[in-house]
Amino acid sequence: MATPRSVAFYTLGCKLNYSETSSISRLFEDNGYAVSEFQNGADVFVINTCSVTESADKKCRNIVRQALKKSPNAKVVVTGCYAQLKPEEISNIKGVDLVLGAAEKFRIVEFVESIGNASSKGMVAAGDVHEANQFVSSFSMGDRTRSFLKVQDGCDYKCTFCTIPMARGASRSDTSMQVIQNAQYIASQGVKEIVLTGINLGDYGNGTEVIEGDKPKKNELFIDLIRHLDQVKDIERFRISSIEPNLLTNEIIEFVAGSDRFVPHFHIPLQSGSNKILSGMRRRYKRELYADRVTQIKTLMPHCCIGVDVIVGFPGETEEDFQETVDFLKGLDISYLHVFTYSERANTLAAEMESPVPVHIRRQRNEILSELSEEKRLSFYKQHQGNTRPMLVEHGSNKDYLTGYTDNYVKVKIPFEANLINKVVSVELQGFDTEGNIKGMLSSTKVIA
Question: Is residue 159's pLDDT more than 60?
């Protein structure tokens, strides 16, 4: 029997990309390829790219170089958001054989087989993004403890800074039946936690039109989906990834508050605490709605973790606008921030706006909010010292301890016990270590699931 060809993967960007890379990996395995670790080299390298930040674009070039150092004769395939937005640019990177867009990436094996051993440097198969109009199920595997399950893709919003609609296409959703089947399969593999992912997760079933009152309900919405998933008994925990504040309804918040499986953790993009800047971004809410969402969550779940996305240095953001954001965030009962420094993206309205913020000012503002994020995180952790919470145990970085997250996203370290990996255990949250993690002590009940 001939030795199977090998394939290796490198993923840049969001949880959704990781779920899709895992699904693409299974396509190769189904066609007789052996999956190799990137650092070990392979016959084919697949690089799944992101284009949210400028650094992600630049990193793609470095990854191509690293791949060819490992295996100089390998075929290099680039897909993902950067590949859809700038296929010709990528095709000119030395060593790239094939560039696949959003509509082509799940036919990747077919394309790879078609080029065979031919000299095919720079071949592009990236059609119009409107051709990416079918939903393709994806979920990550390989991490025993957690799986990222894609339930929605694309976006119909028109935020002025964002290239995602150009890279991912229109909003579209999986069927609830298929999502449930995927969740059941993931559970059968021993995975304890599923993270629901999407580009605009709350728009599942085109929920925006219904929630904003533009159209009557025709499809199941996100609230219907999570009610179905709550009945999948072999998954211990479901976690909702990023959800827009205008789509995070009271119904969803109340459901999570009363659920045994959906954990008390929300990640809600804000982007700015200034209504002027929110308007310039074409966000679909004002800061007052955001504050109301946080209040509603904390009223029902005082222990809930709330993460926030913020962009600093958007065109026209004055010192007063930025200070308004700082003051707004300080006053919110939130747990951590993901801070992004605004960078101009081609073909976006924001890139053409007047009054760009100098880059060094953008970086200073990022540092200020990053410090505030750490303050918020430590404050949230301290609120829970002495409490006992369920923790999903993961691998540690050394033989002395294991790490993991509580249901409400507190990172905990416990003494090493190999038999606890991929178990949900009850831990008492104690003091801090030198890295700012909380040390946990196993309670008498120990293993929950």
Answer: yes
Nearest by Cα to 225 from 201, 191, 199, 257: 201
pLDDT score, position 60 = 83
Q: Identify whether the C-beta of residue 142 lies closer than 8 Å to the C-beta of residue 126.
A: no
Is residue 278 classed exposed, middle or buried when 0-12, 13-18 and 19+ CB atoms within 10 A define those classes?
buried
Q: Would you say 149 and 195 are in contact if contact means Cβ atoms under 8 Å apart?
A: yes
Predicted confidence band of residue 447 (pLDDT cuts 50, 70, 90): low
CB within 8 A of 139, min separation 6: which ones? 19, 22, 23, 147, 148, 149, 150, 182, 186, 194
* The three-state (H, E, C) secondary structure of 342-380, written as one string: CCCCCCCCHHHCCCCCCHHHHHHHHHHHHHHHHHHHHHH
Pick the closest to residue 136 from 98, 99, 168 (CA basis).
168
pLDDT-derived band at 1, boundaries 50, 70, 90: very low
Q: What is the DSSP letter of 130?
A: G
Cβ–Cβ < 8 Å for 145, 132: no
Residue type, 139: F
The burial of 299, by beta-carbon neighbours within 10 Å (0-12 exposed, 13-18 middle, 19 or more buried), is given as exposed
- In this structure, are strands 172-173 and 152-153 parallel, antiparallel, or unpaired? antiparallel
Please state whether 48 falls in left (phi above 0), alpha (psi between -120 and 50) or beta: beta
> Rounded to whole angstroms, what are the CA distances from 295 to 201, 205, 240, 303, 331?
21, 27, 18, 12, 11
Q: Work out the pLDDT band at 4, boundaries 50, 70, 90.
A: low
* Beta carbons of 400 and 415 less than 8 angstroms apart: yes
How far is 104 from 21, CA to CA, in rounded Å? 14
- The H-or-E segment that residue 41 falls in is none
Question: Which structure tokens are listed for 306?
Answer: 């709330």
The one-letter amino acid at 185: Y
pTM of the model: 0.91
Distance CA 424, CA 391 (A): 5
422: left (phi over 0), alpha (psi -120 to 50) or beta: left
**How far apart (Å, rounded) are the C-alpha atoms in residues 254 and 263?**
12
Contact yes or no for 183/229 (Cβ under 8 A):
yes
pLDDT tens profile 230-278: 999 889 999 999 999 999 999 999 999 999 899 999 999 999 999 999 9
Classify residue 284 by burial, with Cβ atoms within 10 Å: 0-12, 13-18, 19+: middle
